[in-house]
Design brief:
This protein has 415 residues and is an all-alpha fold. Helix 6 crosses helix 15, helix 10 packs parallel to helix 15 and helix 15 runs antiparallel to helix 16. The chain is globular, with a radius of gyration of 20 Å.
């Protein structure tokens, strides 16, 4: 996907022609390990917040800045870092961002004050936005055109794995040793990802730098602008509600703590399977796939408060939600690739930035609804956002009936 400006979208990157299929997929695997490490680091404090707050002498609410600050900075760094990167070989940027992630984990592990901890988290945010911009843009560049959707799905699977395995594992390690050891182990994982990228990711030269004019040009186009609004609505629908899924299950649906743990594990596992299942479907019918998963998300959010007195029904709705969100990042990522085929880095940068904004604003507004009205109302608010997301999808018209290769390598739009 990371084609250069004014280069036809169908041109295949030189590195793909020179690499064997095995080597290409090993490169995608190296980026996937990096994705796993980034997301694990990003959400690691969620499970460790009470211990960190106690040891560094801050209130739990203040300690929440460890999650907020990286998200805000990532929203800025997604376009900002790529603007500053110029024509630097994208492989070198991958390696630099992984080094920054390693530094973030080490600073956090040895932080003697909360200010130093926030410095480490700020470094994470700076590298996070740049990494996701590059990773999503490089997916199709590392493999053959017809494998682009599967490569994107594989990289996004690193996110699901981090949610299912990484964050709980960090909490488990903290229980055995300390929260500092959790950051150190995550740092070791980053070192593995760095070594894998150094060995396996090929040269990714860039003949044209991303410019502010590219971002402005993209935002002036109605199709990408409406696509970004759709992304914001759908991600906002998820995160305005998902942030409070555990309190809902505990307080409103009367689940035990152990049951919630297993149910959320199931949420992640079905999402993992959904991500790969839709990687095949999305290449045949992107719009139908997106309508399906957003509809599932909307129905789950709408039904859960109504069914809260039936434990089996709530469990089913949580798993349906997992299926939906497992495929949503993939569908929207491919959609943005098609919305900006001639400006892939600009499209990827704005895509990552709008997701971070949606996460921050969605969680903030959702929290206000929870405090003022209650968790069920927040879920209905999320379902309303999902409905608006569906309306945004409907504005794009009928599905393009083309082959996956034509869609991912040509200038075909997804409407």
């Amino acid at each position: 996907m990371m084609m250069e400006k004014n280069q036809p979208a169908g041109n295949h990157s030189p590195e793909n022609c020179d690499s064997s299929p095995l080597r290409s997929w090993l490169a995608v695997g190296a980026v996937t390990i990096g994705a796993f490490a980034f997301v694990t680091t990003e959400f690691l404090p969620v499970g460790l917040l009470p211990q960190i707050a106690r040891d560094l002498g801050v209130m739990p609410g203040t300690a929440g800045l460890m999650v907020t600050i990286p998200g805000v900075i990532a929203a800025i760094s997604a376009p900002g870092m790529m603007l500053g990167a110029g024509r630097i070989n994208r492989r070198h940027i991958f390696l630099v961002l992984s080094v920054l992630l390693l530094a973030s984990n080490l600073i956090s592990a040895f932080a003697s004050s909360f200010a130093l901890m926030l410095l480490g988290r700020a470094i994470l945010g700076a590298s996070l936005g740049g990494f996701w911009t590059l990773a999503l843009a490089a997916a199709a560049r590392l493999v053959r055109p017809h494998d682009a959707a599967r490569a994107t799905a594989m990289i996004l699977a690193g996110v699901t794995c981090a949610t299912v395995i990484g964050v709980p594992l960090g909490t488990f390690i903290a229980g055995l040793a300390s929260w500092r050891m959790s950051f150190m182990v995550t740092g070791a994982l980053v070192a593995v990802a760095l070594a894998a990228q150094a060995l396996l990711v090929p040269s990714l030269p860039s003949s044209a730098a991303l410019r502010v004019a590219d971002l402005v040009a993209l935002l002036r186009r109605a199709h990408p602008r409406r696509s970004l609004l759709m992304v914001a609505l759908i991600f906002g629908a998820h995160f305005s509600s998902y942030t409070y899924i555990a309190p809902f299950l505990l307080q409103n649906a009367s689940f035990s703590v152990s049951s919630i743990t297993w149910l959320l594990l199931g949420f992640g596992l079905v999402g993992f399977v959904s991500n790969f299942a839709f990687s095949a479907i999305v290449t045949r019918s992107l719009r139908a796939s997106l309508v399906t998963v957003v509809s599932l998300l909307m129905c789950a959010l709408l039904a859960m408060p109504l069914l809260r007195h039936s434990e089996p029904a709530v469990m089913v709705m949580v798993l349906v939600w997992g299926v939906a969100f497992g495929a949503i990042p993939l569908c929207l990522s491919v959609w943005m690739q098609l919305a900006a085929p001639d400006l892939p880095e600009a499209g990827s940068a704005l895509f990552v930035a709008i997701i971070q904004v949606a996460i921050a604003v969605g969680s903030l507004v959702g929290g206000t609804v929870v405090d003022q009205v209650g968790i069920p109302a927040d879920f209905w608010f999320g379902s309303a956002l999902a409905l608006l997301g569906l309306a945004a999808v409907a504005c794009f018209g009928a599905t393009v009936k083309t082959s996956a290769n034509a869609k991912l390598t040509g200038h075909v739009r997804p409407e």
